[in-house]
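Cross-posting from the chemistry board since nobody answered there.

I work mostly on the small-molecule side, so proteins are not my area. We synthesized magnesium ion and want a rough idea of how it might sit in this target. Sequence and SMILES are below. Is it possible to get a predicted 3D structure of the two together?
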Amino acid sequence: MTGWDLAVDFGTSFTTAATLAGGRAEVLEIDGSKYVPSLVCVDDDGTILTGRDAVNEAAMAPDRTERVPKRALVASEQVLLGERTVATVDLVAAVLARVAGEATRRFSGRPPGRVVLTHPARWQAGGIELRRLTEAAERAGLGEPDLVAEPVAAAHHYVRTGDAVPDGGMIGVYDFGGGTFDTAVLRRRRDGFEIAGSPGGDVALGGEDLDAAFMEILAEHAEALDPDRWNELWEAEGRVAERHRTLLRRDVTQAKEALSRLPAVNLWVAGYDDEIRVTRREYERAVEPLLARSVAELQDTVARAGTTPDGLVDVYLTGSTSRTPRISTLLADLLGHVPGMRDDPKAVVVLGALSTIPGSVSATQHVRLPPRRHDPGREPGHPPAEPTPPLTPVGFAVPTAATTPAADATKTVRRTASGPARTPRDEGLTVRAGRHHQQDSVPTPGPALDGDAAARFAREITAIAEAAGVSDLVNAVSPTVRAGDTAAAVRRPLVAAVEGVGVAIGSRHTPFPGLPPEVALQVLREGRAELGALGQALTRLDDLAERLAAL
Ligand SMILES: Nc1ncnc2c1ncn2[C@@H]1O[C@H](COP(=O)(O)OP(=O)(O)OP(=O)(O)O)[C@@H](O)[C@H]1O
Ligand SMILES: [Mg+2]
C-alpha cells in the first residue's frame, strides 16, 4: 500500500485539511464540510470539543468556548474556560488531532508519511508562535511537521495548477480570512518561493469586521422600524435572549456571504414582524473603507518588497472573504487586470501546502489572464492577454438539463380549485415562530406575489437564461402556488432560479478558467457595457432580482 501525506491550514475561523495519496490531492470533509470551525468548547468533564460538537455546545456555553484559538495561541499560554484553566496549545492540539484523526480513518488507520502545517507569514522561525504551533502538533500526535507560510502555500497551488511565474518573478498574495488580513510578496526561485520584503496585513481586520459592518446596517434599519425592540434584543437577559443573539450573529454572517452572490438579502430579526432587507449596494458602501484599507496595505507590502503593482506577475487571492466581488474590482483597478483567483480561495492554501512536498510541483502550463477594459498591457516579457474559451462548469452544483422551460414554467404554476391562484394574503398568512434567514425567512405580507405574477417572473428568468446562452444549464423554473402559501414561499424558488442563472452565466462565460462563478459574474457585470446581448441579459437579471427582493 502506498503512503499518504497530510496538510492542515489552521485558520482563525476555519481549519482546512487535505490529503495527498497516489498523486491525488483531496480536501477533507469533516462533519459534512470542508471548513471545520476552529472554535473549541470545553465540556463539563473537561473534554475539548471541536467541529460541529463545539459549535453546538458553544451556543449554550459561551463561557466555556474559545472562539479563536489561533489568537489565543499567540496571546497567552493558558485561557480560563468556565472553571478550568486550559493550555492554549491543547486547544490547538484538539483541532489538529480531530482533522488528523478523520484523515487517518480514511487511510485505514495508517499514519501520514508527511505532515505539513501552514502558518501566517509573519510568524517567524524560532518565534513563540511557531514554537507553540509545533508543540500543539506534537501533542496531537503529528510528530514534527513541516511548516510552510500560508502565502507560499497558496502561490504553490497557483503554479501547480497552471500559472507560469518566471524565475525571479514576483507575485503578491492577498489573504482576507475570517479574523486577519495578510499580504505578502513572493519571489520565484527554481525550487519554490521566497518572501520578498516584510509581509504585511492587519491582525485586526477580517471577515468578522465585515460582519460588524453588516450588523450596523441591520441596526439602522431595525431602529428605524422600532428602536425599543432592537434595544430589547441586545439588553434582554437569559438563555432565550442569548440564543436569539447567537442566531442573529450567525444569520448576519450567512447573509453577508450571500451578498457575494445576490443583490439583496432579507433577514428575520427576533421581535420584528417584518423581514429586514439589506442590499449589496448599501453593504458595499459600508465596507468600502475596510476594503480600501486592505488594498492600501497590499500596496505598502508591494513597495516594501521594492517593486510596484505593475512589476508583479499577478496578485493571488486567498481566504474566503476574498470571495467578496468588490475586492476583485478594487484590485483590478489597482493592477489593471483581474487578480488571480482560482478554485476555492480557502482551499488553495492547504492544497498548495501539499505541493510544497518535494517532487509534487509541476508548473507546466501557462494560463493567461484576460484583459480588462483599461488593461495597460502586462509587464514586458509577458504576452498580451487573450480571452479564454468558454468553460463548461465543473465542481459546483448547477441544476441540470432544461426541457422546455417557458412552457413548463407556466404549466407548473398550480391553481387552486376555485379558479385563479389566490394570493397568500387571500388565504391569511401564517407567521412561523423561531429564527429564519433569507430564503428561510418569515414572510412579509407585501405586494401580492400570486400565481400569475410568479409565472411571469418564471418566464422572464427563462428568457434571460436563453438570452445569456445558459438555458441548457438551468432547470425549468416551477413556482408552485398553493392555497395558504406565503409570499416568501412563492418567492423562494424564483430567487433560487435567479441565483442559478447567475451561477450558470458566471461559469459558462467566465473570463478565465477556475474563477469562482460568483466572482466571474461580478467581473462580467463590471464589463457588461461591452458584452452586447450577454451584458443586456445581466442587466435584466439584476433588475429582476431587485424587483423580487423588493416584494
Ligand atoms: N462567499 C463569501 N463572501 C464573503 N465572505 C465569505 C464568503 N464565504 C465565507 N466568507 C467569510 O470568510 C471568513 C472565513 O475565511 P477563512 O476561512 O479564509 O478564514 P481563516 O483562514 O479561518 O482565517 P485567517 O486566515 O484570518 O486565519 C468568514 O468571515 C466568512 O464569513
Ligand atoms: Mg486563512
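Reply from a structural biologist on the board:
Welcome over. Reading the output above for you: The longest strand covers residues 192-202. Confidence is low (pLDDT under 50) at residues 359-447. Happy to explain the C-alpha cell format if needed.
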